[in-house]
Amino acid sequence: MTTTKTTARCARCGRALTSARALRTGYGPTCYTKVRAAAREAAAQHKAHQVAKAVELLEDGGVVPTTRTGVYYTVGTEGEIYKTARTGCTCPAGLRGKYTCYHRIAVEIVEATRQTVAYELVSAPIALGLAA
Is 82 left (phi over 0), alpha (psi -120 to 50) or beta? Predict the structure, then answer.
């Protein structure tokens, strides 16, 4: 009889997750701090309900990088797959272009964590949700 051990990986950097908190949030401690700070910054620029959906998308692992830099696959509410970048998205809301869709907000958060000057340190661990 063979058994297979699955290892949970950080949704941002791909490193193995070991702590209970990291397994719960889907991010290692350093990546968690960076993503949380980027989410706070996005919250100040967009509508709260859109940022909440973007954070949920990130927590669910619904933002996956493609082979092209800055372009990601994102998952819609019904399981559809869209190509998304900071500048646009192939979802219906993104194609209309009237408002920034939550897929683009999620990509903004991910991309902000890649720039070292775009984040601040968070002293206490808090959930990725925007509740204080």
Answer: beta
Q: Residue 64 has what DSSP assignment?
A: E
> For residue 123, what are the contacts with CB-CB under 8 A and spacing of at least 6?
none
CB 100 within 8 A of CB 107: no
Radius of gyration over every alpha carbon of the chain, rounded to an integer in angstroms: 15
Euclidean distance between CA atoms 120 and 23, whole angstroms: 22
The reported pTM is: 0.66
Enter the DSSP assignment of 120.
-
The pLDDT tens digits of the residues spanning 8-35 come to: 888 778 888 888 888 877 788 888 888 8
DSSP 59: H
CA 39-41-43 angle, 5° bins: 70
What's the one-letter identity of residue 12?
R
